[in-house]
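Before going further, learn to read the protein records used in this course. The integers have meaning only within a learned vocabulary of local backbone shapes. The record below shows the convention in full.
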Amino acid sequence: MGKIRKTYDIHFKKKVVYLHLNDGMGYHTIAREMNIDKNQVRRGVNYFQAEGIKGLEEKRGKAKGGTGMGRPRICPEDPESKIKRLNAENEMLKKFLNM
């Protein structure tokens, strides 16, 4: 079974980032005090420096594109060709079952 990931709220993340940027604490020291991995501290600081407060918001579980996701249809099948295709499938299945 996989590891359960812990999610931290934005206030906790801001505190971690400000400890590094304002107080000058190192990644290892902050990680030890806050009981998190040093890579989480580094990642949080990098996200904050790149995107600001938005970088600290939770990104998992949010769709990037919006509505209409998935493979788009090139053109909808007209009724006549659909009937023709379904009849051909039925004939093929009848031949297969009669073998």
About this structure: The mean pLDDT is 85.
